[in-house]
Amino acid sequence: DKTAAATSFVAGSTVKDILIIDERNFFIVTNNSKVLFFENDKKKWEQTLDGNIVGDAAIIDIYANEKTQLLVSTGKKVYVLDINGNQPNGFPIELDDQTNVQTPLFYRWKGSGFFVLAGQNGKLLQYDNQGRELSIIRTQLSDIEQQPVVWVSANKPFIGVCGGGRFE
Question: Running DSSP on this structure, what letter comes out for residue 122?
């Protein structure tokens, strides 16, 4: 007879996202901009982010080394937190004259990691995996309404965005 066991965890506020690494380790993101990490059923650490969380959090592997990080953003900062609550060099990415308006996108291309952020007025902001700004791409859209998407065609990467009933 196998009986399911329930376990309870205290997040201290309303849970926005739960991002599970494996059966014993997970991140919790709350509606009041807190990130908590639980390891072996115990809270290991908690951090409060600067600003309101924008979009959804995601589990990434920034260096493709089978180590897990949490990607989460506010309007002015993009955080990459490891299971110890530390951030790699170059993070958080701090946006000065732009504001992030969507879930950030992380993708890998030819062995390198990249971040794409949807800024105001339809702008796309691209960063490398060390938090350095690579480019600002101006789109024809006034607002980007969903997380950008990336795909490869004819051995070239493409970034797609949606807004105002259009896809670019």
Answer: G
Answer yes or no: are the C-beta atoms of 84 and 91 closer than 8 Å.
Answer: no
**Predicted TM-score (pTM) of this structure:** 0.90
Q: Is 23 helix (H, G, I), strand (E, B) or coil?
A: coil
Model pLDDT, residue 41: 81
Cβ atoms of 17 and 65 closer than 8 Å: no
- Say how far apart CA 33 and CA 155 lie, in whole Å: 39
Exposure string over 90-116, b if 16+ CB within 10 A, otherwise e: ebbbebeebbbbbbbbbbbeeeebbbb
The DSSP string of 40-89 is TTEEEEEEE-SS-B-S--EEE-TTSSS--EEEEEBSSEEEEEETTS---T
Phi and psi, residue 119, nearest 5° = -95, -170
